[in-house]
Amino acid sequence: MSGFQLNAVPVLSRTTLDRAEHLRADEQALKEGWAQAKLLRMNKRGQVRVEAGVVVLDAALTLAPEPTPEAVFVGVDDGVHLWAVRDNTLAGMLTDLRAFGTTLELDDFGAGLLSTALALLNWHDKAAFSPVDGTPTRSTNAGWSRTSESGHEDFPRTDPAVICLIHDGGDRVLLARQSTWPEGLFSLLAGFVEAGESLERCVEREIKEEVGVDVREIRYLGSQPWPFPRSLMLGFAAVADPEQPVAFYDGEIVEAHWFTRAEVREALNAGAWGSPTGVSGPTPAKLLLPGSISIARTIVESWAAED
């Protein structure tokens, strides 16, 4: 049982978005494409407008007559240029990326569009000054870099984080709950990779810090962008001894339990927390699991599908 693999590509990794990298430095081509270009407006909370379950894309000309520094070029769809911009005046039916997969469906194109735009705009929000010399920066390369007054070019930052399913090599899995999560909502353990640290060592350290458990047989499963604010989740599986006591050292985890495969399957059949079919009221089920856009869901589903 310890050799399971992902049985599906994580939702946010299924993107069909054409990033058209060759156009980012071609100012003339971007100007020519602006007249027909589409624009995704996203507020500071990462919310976008939705109509009939579909993300609203405005004409780029509603922003300006030509590309502006605050807009970022996301890619191309059927020859039409796609841009994104921060807009805190949005009104109407608003939703964010986390809601997709629970209350709304998200196709592969939308997954790439939203996750890329969110990660880029989040980076720009924090990159107004150069980390090298402290001088103000301006958006360059159609939003895919920022250049300081001294000419230093900085690129979008992505923070690697590991996420790991811990199992006993048989029929049980260890799931945990953070203090800020609703009662009954459990997921995999995760944490950011530290400087000078390998991914495998990070898995060992994070799990030991959070639940006091030693793991072995660490295996890589797959990855998924997670633009909250700008991470890349690297999925792993590892084996642990369920007889080893659980201990919470860093205060991030407040509850962790070993669940059987049958219990996990029952929770999966009940739907994700926050979904129309999932339980999220004052008396939640014993076990609730994350929504489908999380790689955690894909990993858990893959493990639970094993015979």
Automatic annotation (TrEMBL):
It comes from the Bacteria. Residues 132-154 are annotated as: Disordered. Residues 136-148 have a biased composition (Polar residues). Its cofactor is Zn(2+); Mg(2+). Its EC number is 3.6.1.22. One of its GO terms (cellular component) is cytosol. GO terms for biological process: NAD+ catabolic process; NADP+ catabolic process. Residues 156-281 form the Nudix hydrolase domain. It holds the Pfam family NUDIX. CDD domains: NUDIX_NADH_pyrophosphatase_Nudt13 (cd03429). GO terms for molecular function: metal ion binding; NADH pyrophosphatase activity; RNA NAD-cap (NMN-forming) hydrolase activity. The keyword NAD applies. It is an enzyme of class 3 (hydrolase). It catalyses: a 5'-end NAD(+)-phospho-ribonucleoside in mRNA + H2O = a 5'-end phospho-adenosine-phospho-ribonucleoside in mRNA + beta-nicotinamide D-ribonucleotide + 2 H(+). Belongs to the Nudix hydrolase family. NudC subfamily. PANTHER family: NAD-CAPPED RNA HYDROLASE NUDT12 (PTHR42904:SF6), NUDIX HYDROLASE, NUDC SUBFAMILY (PTHR42904). This is NAD(+) diphosphatase. It comes from Nocardia yunnanensis.
